[in-house]
Amino acid sequence: MTDYQPFLITFRLALITTAILFIVAIPLAYWLAHSRSKFKSVIETLVSMPLVLPPSVLGFYFLIAFGPSHGLGQFIEHYFNTRLVFSFGGLVVASVIYSLPFMVHPIQAGLAGLSPNLKDASLSLGKSKTDTLLKVLLPSIKPSLLTGLVLTFAHTVGEFGVVLMIGGNIPGQTRVASIAIYDEVEAMNYHSANIYAGILFAVTFIILLTVYFVNHRYAITKNL
Amino acid sequence: MISFSISKVLHTVQGKALLDVMCDIQPGELVGLYGASGAGKTTILRMLAGLLLPDNGRISVGGDTWLDTTAGTNVAPQKRSAGFVFQDYALFPNMTVKGNLAYALQKGQPPAIVDELMDIMELRQLSGRYPETLSGGQKQRVALARALVRQPKLLLLDEPLSALDNELRYRLQGHILQAHKRYGLTTILVSHDVPELFRMAGRILVLEQGKIVKHGTPPEVFFNELAGGAFQLVGDVVDVNTESKLVAVLVYGNVVKVKVAETEQYKQGDKVLVYSDTFAIKKMA
Predict the structure, then answer these.
(1) Predicted ipTM?
(2) Domain of B240, in residue numbers
(3) Is residue B285 part of a domain?
(4) Smallest Cα distance from A119 to chain B, Å
């Protein structure tokens, strides 16, 4: 009997991470697309770090930082009464940071690709910056938003190293699908591993296919 | 009256350059801003609209102070009653033609102005279309209509017709003039098209390297000494034939060949005035 709980945890984690990142990434991407601050390069580098850093490195630092023997972990435990290591909450925090570039980059590129006059036109029509962002800029980069959402979701589904480091492998709490596969293979349980792997493969394929399909259609209708 | 005196150090390809201009404009005037690219024409419009902050200066429009750097006053672009038509039109791609106009409505403003402008600019047929499906001339009309929804005191036009062919240009100039008169606007038109400025502007400011070097009516500005003549046309030299001493001038889509004494002083691209002192008439058969 195949246990589907790892999938529930995986998709719950991916959904929550994607939702949080969508809200966090929009202001960050907006700032990166328009700022001329000298700190911009530093922030851009930090955002992109998860792309190149081995997940185990990131996971290791999270483990240290959120552990109950260190300042941040103690602080969170004392004030929020929660422990982020080996818990679902910790997985969410780690995933948000780990998948940050996958949400920020497409939105930043989308915003930077718009004519700066769009923003100025909206301002000169008496609209606030928030109105301009919500009613003009974001609706004009729908394909970028979709790409960001889907890449983040898919990337979180595929997470392994970071999850293993900070979440461990607690069934029903932090045991996500990718780890379940690893577990089953180690236990020589190839049949279950096959089912898990097959489902992940199919889901990821369908998600990405949908993005490309929708974006192509968008491009075609735009050029009518 | 609109009066401004603004300066800003610009970082251009050739290095730093100082933009320093002052001007008074009477209500209802249509002023042309003429100059080579990079002279600072767009920068001036952007500073007037509040999209760019001058280093120093003062802008007052009909008694309201929009900017006074010594007093620390800087009215946000949203609060300045200025309509801006951008060179690339900057139509919102996610909204229909009507949506673009409706977006410009201010809180509590009656929406009737949208329909009125759709009629004046002949946009009724295009109401539900999206900007990417429009031609250049149609986009220009939408941009102009959108800028007028707010009924601004000041209309700023940044080379709005530069991407259009001559015939369309001529028609759209008519639209702009019509709106300018109907709504009693004060308009600043950036253009490097001399015939266009002749037709539209009552007064012209010539900008060179960040300074206003000349101003006056179009003939005063473009011709050192006015040629006496019964008719005058402004055109571009398109060809100079040194052998036959003929200069070909393009005047609103027609090529006129003019015999000259010396061809040396003319070259392709020169702005010239074609004029005639006397006419001859002939009875048609």
Answers:
(1) 0.80
(2) 226-276
(3) no
(4) 9
